[in-house]
User: Fold this.
Amino acid sequence: MNRYAKFATAVVVAVLVVALPAFAQRGSADFSKLVALGDSYGAGVFSGSLNERHQVWSWPAVIARQVGYTTCQPNAVAADPCFAQPLVTFPGIGPELQLVNLTPTIAPAAGSGVPVMTTFGRAYNNLAIPGATVGALLALTGAEPPTPGEPTAVSMARFILRGRGTAVAQALEQHPTFIVMWIGGNDALSTLFSGTPATLTPAADFKARYAAVLSALVAGAPDAGMVVGNIPTQPLPYMLLISRFIVNPATGQPIPGPDGNPIPLFGDLGDGTVGPLPAGTFVLLHARTNLATGFGLPNVPPFNALPNAGKPLPNSDTITPTEFATIVTRVNEYNAAIQAEASARSIPVADIKGLFDRVYKPGGLHVGPVTITPAPVTGGFFGFDFFHLTDLGYLLFGDEYIKTINASYDTEIPLAGISQLYANNGAFFPETTNGQLVTNADRLVVTEDAITQIRSMWAQPTMRKMHKMRVGRH
Assistant:
């Protein structure tokens, strides 16, 4: 009898352990009114462009299809129960950067796209705004007057928010039953073009703004389920394409000095000193323009023929190891704030940082027969602007959210499979515009128009305005 009693007690305890959730999540897994908030990753920006060919692979759209939605077509009306996004015709607002030959060369597509759902009769389900920082979700309304050099988020918000209110307000007016959000990348990524940690959002401001967004969402949709995500700390390919050494343009290989070692470029090291770029320095892609005129090169033959030989690379063209360490520390502070503010409201956090870490590990991430790496052009994860993801990258991003939903809400939503992407341009195994496959990107050429296009997506000179934007009423 004692043995039976012990067995019965164990069974009851086991049943209770299985039946009770380990953590009481906010809301429930009701996807009847799904809304998404975010930035360019959430909007589905691909290769420097927002356009309908890739918006359908935005990570929120991936989640929506996996929970049963169809994606709204351009002729959809407000009553249609589809997942609505602010679609833009190809080649998009950018336009999209493409591989044009087997060199391989990256250049912008001809023409430009236009928004096609501006009169859609309700708020979009996907309210992600390219260029948005955390503070922008409670500040921008889409009714801001145009100004010269305005941040990308302001111009994009005009046709995404359409003057109907902030992104948070429009999310809440839909009476959402489930909210997915990934925001904060732009609070860090301004350094990609400024070359200095000075443009990072202060950690205290980030925490306050993130808390304000979550508090507004919880107050306005107290019964909605919700998942947010953390931020990667890996260096993006935009930082990895140019060597810190002087290279022979004919071979692409470093030029050895008298001692046989490669000769480093020299530049402003960001602390008031000028000197050779130390090991671990990232030379940003846009530095190529200055390098072509002699910046960073010694004023000796054959470089003395260049007008700016002997002048240091500007600090805006590089990120030194010290600066990068500061950036990583700040992003870790952002992630701590995301985890703390989400946990305080019983909101699960998708491990997007972990996804990037797996892609960056030696050998890459293996998904079935496909190996995904951060390598430019051929890696399959990053598009041709070297910081936005491919369709495949966004699919994996969405799957991380689905994994978190399943683990936190006891659901069995199927993960999106990669086989559906084999026929979609730009997924992986990249093709040039004439259909030939690129198998080696060692001699990658990025045209000046392409670099201008990449930088224009940020309107970098005024990005600080976004960091200082007041958090208004939603």
In short: The domain at 34-239+324-468 is CATH 3.40.50.1110 (Rossmann fold).
